[in-house]
TrEMBL record:
The entry's keywords: Oxidoreductase
Single GO molecular function: oxidoreductase activity
Residues at which FAD binds: 34-35, 237, 424
PANTHER family: AMINE OXIDASE (PTHR43563), AMINE OXIDASE [FLAVIN-CONTAINING] B (PTHR43563:SF1)
Residue ranges of domain Amine oxidase in the record: 14-448
Organism: Mycolicibacterium pulveris (Mycobacterium pulveris)
Family: Belongs to the flavin monoamine oxidase family.
Protein name, as recorded: Monoamine oxidase
C-alpha cells in the first residue's frame, strides 16, 4: 500500500485510537497503523472454551476507577456497560505459613506492624502531593528522591518486616516491578498522577473498582469500528523519515503524512529507526524506561465456590509466587474465575519454566489460599506479556533512579512532526487505560495546533 494522509498514528491501542478519533472528528485525514492482527494494545480478551464459550476473560488491562473520568465518558458514549469488581466478603492473606481472613485494604497484623504500614503510606502520600506529575523534575526534592530506589527508602524509613513486605508488594502489584528497580521519584509521580497510593491498591473506591462487560478490549473494538477503514492491521512500522513530509516504512505499506503520533510504549518507540535521529535526551529516555514484568493467570471453575465460604476472592500472599488474587468472574457469576498475578522477579523466573510447570505452581497457590476445590480448574488461561512481540512487558513502563530528573522532560515533548502518546505519557491517570485515552487526546490537540 501507498498512503498519503494528514496524520499517521502508529499503534491501535486505546491511546492511538483515541487520538485518531479526535482528529477524525476535527475533519483531519488520518490513518492508524497497527503491527498486530488486532486492535487493543495491552487490553486483550480471551474467549473461554466449552462449556463457557460465550464468556470472555481479560488477559490484559481491565479495571477503571472512580477518578478515571475520560475513559468513563468514552465508555458511556460508546454505550458499553460496566459492573463492579466482586468485593463482598472477607479477603485472605498468607503470611508465615498461615492463611488468615481480613477486611479493608491492609491485612490484619499487630498494632506496631499496622502503625508502621500506615505511617509509611502517610509519608508517601504526603511526599507525592509535592509533585507536579507534568514536571516531576521541578519538585524541590526531586534530585534527592530520584537518586534513590523505593527499596532504599523503605530500608531507611519502614521499621518492621511486615511493613517492608507490604510496600514491596505494592510495587509489584502496581508497577510489575521490584522496589529495588523503581525510582522513589517515579513512585511519587505516579501516586500524584493517580490520587495517591491508597487509591492505586484499593478495589472499592480505588483503581480496581469497575470492570467492562464484554472485556476491556471491547472499547478498542468499538473505536476501531467507528473509524472504519482508516485502521490498518498487520502493518509493522519500522522506520520514520522526516523530510518535507513524514515517511513511514513497513513491509506492508509506505505512508506519507504531515504529522505522526507514535502511540507505543517508550521502549518499543525507541526500537524504530529515525531519520533524522532522535535528540539524545529522547533516545536516552527510551533506553531507560523498561516495561514491567507480569504474567496474568486465571483458573476457571464451574462456579465461584469461594463466595459461599464468605470470601471475596481477593487476597495477598507474602509467600508467592502468586502474590495478588482477585475474583475475575463475569457479571453473571458463572463460571467462577480466580485471577492471580506473577509480577517482577516472580514473572521473570516463572517465564523461564514450561507452561505446564508454571500452571502447577499457580494452581498450587490458588489451592493454598482457597482450598482443595481450587486444585482442579476446568480451564487455565495465562498471558506472558514480556514474550509478546509487540508489547514486551506490562503493565507499562517505569523509570529507574536518575531518569526523571535527567531525561524526563523528553517524555511528552514533540520532536519536529513526531508526537508521543501512550499511558506512560499521561499527566493524569498515568499508566492506566484512562491515562491512555487522555494521552491520545492530548497528542491529537498538539497535532491540531501544529496543523
Amino acid at each position: 500500500m501507498h498512503i498519503d494522509t494528514d496524520v499517521a498514528v502508529i499503534g491501535a491501542g486505546l491511546a492511538g485510537l483515541a487520538a485518531a478519533r479526535a482528529l477524525r472528528r476535527a475533519g483531519v485525514d488520518v490513518v492508524v497503523l497497527e503491527a498486530r492482527d488486532r486492535v487493543g494494545g495491552r487490553t486483550l480478551n480471551h474467549r473461554l472454551g466449552d462449556p463457557f464459550g460465550d464468556t470472555v476473560v481479560e488477559v490484559g488491562g481491565q479495571w477503571i476507577g472512580p477518578n478515571h473520568t475520560r475513559i468513563r465518558a468514552l465508555i458511556d458514549e460508546l454505550r458499553i456497560a460496566t459492573f463492579d469488581t466482586h468485593d463482598a466478603g472477607a479477603k485472605l492473606w498468607e503470611h508465615d505459613g498461615r492463611v488468615r481472613r481480613y477486611r479493608g485494604e491492609v491485612p490484619k497484623a499487630g498494632p506496631m506492624q499496622l502503625a508502621d504500614v500506615q505511617i509509611a503510606l502517610t509519608r508517601l502520600e504526603r511526599m507525592a502531593r509535592r509533585i507536579d506529575p507534568a514536571a516531576p523534575w521541578s519538585a524541590k526534592r526531586a534530585l534527592e528522591w530520584d537518586r534513590q530506589t523505593v527499596a532504599s527508602w523503605v530500608q531507611r524509613h519502614v521499621r518492621t518486616a511486615l511493613g517492608r513486605s507490604f510496600i514491596n508488594l505494592a510495587c509489584e502489584a502496581v508497577w510489575a516491578a521490584d522496589a529495588a528497580d523503581l525510582s522513589l521519584l517515579h513512585l511519587l509521580t505516579y501516586c500524584s498522577s493517580n490520587h495517591g497510593l491508597t487509591q492505586l491498591i484499593s478495589t472499592r473506591g480505588g483503581a480496581q473498582q469497575t470492570r467492562i462487560v464484554g472485556g476491556a478490549q471491547a472499547i478498542s473494538t468499538a473505536l476501531a469500528a467507528e473509524l472504519g477503514d482508516v485502521v490498518h492491521l498487520g502493518v509493522a512500522v519500522r522506520s520514520i523519515r522526516c523530510r518535507d513530509r513524514v515517511e513511514l516504512d513497513s513491509e506492508a505499506a509506505t505512508v506519507r503524512a504531515k504529522r505522526v503520533i507514535v502511540a507505543m510504549s517508550p521502549a518499543l518507540a525507541g526500537r524504530l529507526s529515525y531519520d533524522e535521529p532522535l535528540p539524545a535526551d529522547r533516545d536516552q529516555l527510551t533506553q531507560r524506561m523498561p516495561n514491567g514484568s507480569v504474567i496474568k493467570c486465571m483458573a476457571v471453575y464451574d462456579e465461584p465456590f469461594w463466595r459461599a465460604d464468605g470470601l471475596s476472592g481477593q487476597g495477598v500472599s507474602l509467600s508467592g509466587p502468586v502474590k495478588v488474587f482477585f475474583d475475575n468472574s463475569p457479571p453473571s457469576g458463572k463460571p467462577g474465575v480466580l485471577l492471580g498475578f506473577l509480577e517482577g522477579n516472580q514473572a521473570r523466573e516463572f517465564a523461564r519454566l514450561d507452561p505446564a510447570a508454571r500452571r502447577r505452581a499457580v494452581v498450587d497457590c490458588f489451592t493454598r489460599m482457597y482450598g482443595r476445590r481450587a486444585a482442579q480448574p476446568v480451564e487455565y488461561v495465562e498471558k506472558v506479556w514480556a514474550a509478546d512481540e509487540w508489547t514486551r512487558g506490562c503493565y507499562g513502563a517505569f523509570l529507574p533512579p536518575n531518569t526523571w530528573t535527567t531525561h524526563g522532560h523528553a517524555l511528552r515533548e514533540p520532536v519536529g512532526p513526531i508526537h508521543w502518546a501512550g499511558a506512560e505519557t499521561a499527566v493524569e491517570s498515568m499508566g492506566y487505560m484512562d491515562g491512555a485515552v487522555a494521552s491520545g487526546e492530548r497528542a491529537a490537540a498538539e497535532v491540531l495546533a501544529a496543523l
